[in-house]
Write a structure and sequence with these properties.
This protein has six helices and six strands, in the order E-H-E-H-H-E-H-E-H-E-H-E. It is an alpha/beta fold.
Length: 185
């Protein structure tokens, strides 16, 4: 038996000038390839990349998950040319008191993030307000098709589908449109 064909959710990521990557937990794995490709395009000579802004949202339950791609995120945070990449990591799980104390103790408001070690990208605690994020990005990008690429739990994908539909209706007069590409499990 043959099942498929299935396309990669991020296959068309570089066809858009504005991109939102949303990863839930281990869903970051396919997104890491996109981030690596962006990194190589931006750091290897004159960049011909169509992408002008990429928003990367990674929602994790625990700090250990954020360590999986810490080196890649640190390289992207340090080498981002032209302020193209915006990284937002969200920690949704409960932290032990000891860990909260360490974060509070070592968090320098003008330095690296105490959790991820990134300079320009703080860690957010709790679930992201995806509707507000879509509103902000959509209103800043009139006359634009915005590629939204998601890999994560089904509940997250369903939520993004509804948010996309809402903001496509609201922003239709601005000719802003969110185009959702999702990983099929």
């Amino acid at each position: 038996m043959v099942d498929g064909p299935y396309c990669a959710p991020a296959q068309h990521v570089f066809d858009y000038s504005c991109v939102i990557l949303v990863a839930g937990g281990i869903g970051v794995t396919p997104m890491s390839s996109v981030l690596k490709s962006l990194f190589y395009q931006l750091t290897s000579g004159p960049h011909l990349c169509k992408v002008r802004k990429m928003h990367f949202l990674w929602v994790c339950r625990d700090v250990q998950a954020l360590e999986w791609f810490q080196d890649l995120l640190a390289a992207l945070d340090a080498e981002d040319i032209g302020n193209i990449l915006e990284i937002r990591t969200y920690l949704t799980g409960q932290l032990p008191i000891e860990q909260i104390r360490n974060i509070a103790l070592y968090q320098d408001p003008n330095g690296r993030d105490a959790v991820t070690g990134l300079y320009r990208s703080p860690t957010y605690y709790g679930r992201p307000n995806l509707s507000k994020i879509f509103e902000d990005i959509g209103t800043r990008n009139p006359n634009t098709d915005i590629g939204v690429f998601v890999c994560g739990p089904k509940r997250m994908t369903r939520s993004l589908r509804a948010i996309k539909q809402k903001w496509n209706r609201v922003l239709k007069p601005n000719k802003t449109r969110f185009v959702l590409h999702e990983e099929k499990f």
